[in-house]
Amino acid sequence: MKQLTRLLMSVLILGITACSKQLPADIANSEQSSAAITIGAAQLQQYLPLLVNKRLGLLVNATAEVAGQHLVDVLLQNQVNIDTIFAPEHGFRGDYDAGAYVKNSVDSKTGLKIVSLYGANKQPTTEQLANIDVLIFDIQDVGVRYYTYISSLHYLMQAAAAADIPLIVLDRPNPNGAFIDGPVLELAFQSFVGMHPIPLLHGMTVGELALMIKGEAWIDQADSLQLTVIPVAHYRRDMAYSLPVKPSPNLPNDQAIALYPSLGFFEATPLSVGRGTAFPFQVIGYDKFALADFSFTPVSTPGAALTPPLMDKPLHGQDLRQVSSHGLDLRYLLDWHQLFKQHNELFFTSENFMDKLAGTNKLRQQIEQGLTEPEIRQSWQADLQHFRQQRRSYLLYPE
């Protein structure tokens, strides 16, 4: 099976020959960054032939943008027959709060039906796929295991395999692609915030992950899935990549995305990481005691309307908007845990959620036992080395 996957990848890589001169001028000029990369969605000549006379289903959100236009609009302009839009967490337009139930609806602009995969079901049903010939996934991910778009990809792949529907993944860069770090998920802690035995920071794009999910048979009927990945042209995973569209309401900029691997764990604590402010995932604060003297007050705002932690209370803590952040930094968790311990206050108020975020109960236990950051990191190394070897067959871009 793995030999077949390697062959498939070779075919994909050899088949992707697009360069900017092959693209319409407006798309080429917009998508060519200083690094000269071209996202998968911008390589229309590579996948439009696969959509001729086909009824299409798309799992997309606001990040599925091509030269300032939504992919849906681009496809409609090219006479593609779109049957259904599937919506992940945060919705098709990216305006639902984190964790908010996303409803089925109709897109006001195009009149297309929108089927939620973050509501009554997370996997498309047989009925929802009945009129679909081809599926497309195009969502900008941030490279962190507990960010749920890759969980939605998992379920779309599984549904496509079961229904014998080809799936095309339009790849995009990983803004945290230079890092492989954190504990590898143990399957006993599998949940929608962690589906696969990969590190917290896996250093892969969604296209590479899709190949790995298929190749490692992490979905049912993996061998039967007809998977095509349109890679990013001229891309290396160590390239800096600033997202043109914020991937969700509370990751509004590059700094928040860089800090997200480190601050996401605070969702299992009583602290605020700035939801309900203009700088979510760029601050840490509490109302009773603090590590620093920066002050802010969370309020109910679009994207944080579901009662952000410590809403309407003046909080004090750390302003991280200007810090240099690279990958996973455990100092924030360790320092705040130590402060809570000194005040005899419970830090992990949701142990179960913390363990799901970490993909293991060991990280929480290590912090509670007082292990140092080097000691904790050392405990990950064997698993990380195994993962590095395991993923090699699925990589599309230079290390």
UniProtKB/TrEMBL annotation:
The Peptidoglycan beta-N-acetylmuramidase NamZ N-terminal domain sits at: 57-254
By its UniProt entry, which InterPro entries does this protein fall under? NamZ, NamZ_C, NamZ_N
Q: Where is the Peptidoglycan beta-N-acetylmuramidase NamZ C-terminal domain?
A: 259-397
| GO molecular function terms noted in the UniProt entry | peptidoglycan beta-N-acetylmuramidase activity
Q: What name does the UniProt record give this protein?
A: DUF1343 domain-containing protein
> What organism is recorded for this protein?
Rheinheimera salexigens
